[in-house]
Amino acid sequence: MEEKNNIGFLRSGSPGVNSNPFNLDSTRLGGTFTFNENKTTKNSALVRSDFGEVILSKDYNWTTGNLGDGNSFLQAGKKLVL
């Protein structure tokens, strides 16, 4: 089965609501932080922010060398910072 248009972590919200940078670290992500890196995952993102800043401060190791067709590791909508 093909997986399309999925988001692993999405930060969305409204101005004034928890607008501080959001830190994705070992405390929030735990020991396992992976992306289903197979040929059936397409047009997807591991981390996407549509609101505010997201900081990734955890190690991530690729298992296959690529993310697949149309996939992104970090993605920002509008005028955001990752």
Overview of the structural elements:
- It is a single chain.
- A 3-stranded parallel beta sheet has the order 2-5-7, with no helix packed on it. Strands 1-4 form a two-stranded parallel ribbon. A two-stranded parallel sheet has the order 3-6.
- With 82 residues, it is mainly β.
- It contains 1 helix and 7 strands.
- The mean pLDDT is 76.
Helix content: under 10%
Task: Tell me the structural class.
Answer: mainly beta
Rg over alpha carbons: 13 Å
Q: What string gives the helices and strands in order?
A: EEEHEEEE
How much of the residues is beta strand, in percent? 25-35%
Number of helices: 1
Number of E strands: 7
The spatial strand order of the largest sheet comes to 2-5-7
Properties at a glance:
two-stranded parallel sheet, 5% helix, three-stranded parallel sheet, 1 helix
Helices and strands in order:
Blueprint: E1 3-4, E2 7-11, E3 22-24, H1 26-29, E4 41-42, E5 45-49, E6 54-56, E7 72-76
Overview in brief:
By secondary structure, the protein is mainly beta. The protein has 1 helix and 7 strands.
